[in-house]
Design goal:
Elements (H helix, E strand, L loop, with lengths): L1 H26 L17 E6 L5 E5 L12 H13 L8 E3 L2 H4 L13 E3 H11 L2 H12 L2 H14 L22 H14 L4 H4 L3 E4 L4 E4 L11 E9 L3 E10 L2 E10 L2 H18 E5 L9 E5 L5 E6 L4 E5 L6 E6 L4 E2 L7 E9 L2 E10 L8 H13 L4
Parallel strand pairs: 11-15
Antiparallel strand pairs: 1-2, 1-9, 3-4, 5-6, 7-8, 8-9, 10-13, 11-12, 12-17, 14-16, 16-17
Length: about 400
Amino acid sequence: MMKKKIVLAVLCLLLAVTAVLRSYADAVPGVQAAGVQDFDVPCAAAVLIDEDSGTVLYEKNADERRPVASITKVMTLLLTFEALQAGKIALGDIVPVSEHAYHMGGSQIWLEPGEQLTLQEMLKAICISSANDAAVAVAEFVAGSEPAFVDAMNARAAALGMTATHFANACGLDEEGHLSSARDVAVMSREMLLHHPEVREYCTVWMDTLRGGRTQLVNTNKLLKSYPGITGLKTGTTGKAGVCITASAERDGLRLIAVVLGASSGKERFEAAKTLLDYGFAHYDSAEVTLPDAAPEELPVKRGTAETTTLDYAAPERLLVPKGEGRDLQTKILLPDTLQAPVRQGSPVGSWQLLRGETVLQELPICAAQDVQALSFGYCLRYLVHTVLLGGA
């Protein structure tokens, strides 16, 4: 009897601790207790993130290494748009077609060796019809060869912290060692959408044509016709990867990315993506963050070579909050009256808080925007010589 009472007491204690942890998780944005997600999606792996903050809202086998099919092309597009931004290439450039690109199987636009299309036309083929031949042709155009481009893909993946990813080609066809994960796909999708939102102009086109209308392009992302707010991004299907998608959508300022890998059919892929996006839009808001009008732009500096230093507020434009809790946000500025020289550029001199009631949701630094050196005998002597003896201003 005594043993039963002890076991019962321990069980009650565990339940109480679990309840406290879950309450804490519900109260703090971005914190989730294990097991609080009460739904599943029909696929091998999945993840849902907030695009702006990168906060994970749902995950299922998110770090499992798997083939990702044509979702690979998100990295191909990312490197291409980065080369465009750097001025290395231009949309009007002619992209030649090699024998190697011509021999790509799977989804394609039937490029012929020696055929010439502009980079803009190739991007349409990649984003709308997931053309493997176009992806490889663009890879060769950007880096000189597909192997060189694949090296750049892997280097960029490493820089983004995509630890589960290794690329073996630029288009996503099944190949030994060509693997990623739902979490890594979300990372590169977020990088693409945050820094090159113009990709939406390609990914949201339902139908287009090439070669003077002789080649029709139809988007492989059927959510464009069925899901309000969809903005992209890329589908993929191969024998080893199964049916996959990285889907982005936006409503009322909330931008979400849902990754679905290893679904058994197109229908299940799209249903899983809808379920994830619906969950995000039903449970979260994106609240606009504004600093108080009275937030000072500079602070006085004592005993410095300048009388003031301007301030740099590391303020996000939006904040992910639980549904319905974005209306009561307040900000609080925490700064000293003056600073003591020396002041280093980028050094924190105060902070600002984002609050709901008395609860601090986020605290970010306020930094000095430039150096202010401390007064010294040598500086004062040089100043006197310059202003008094030489008549400088």
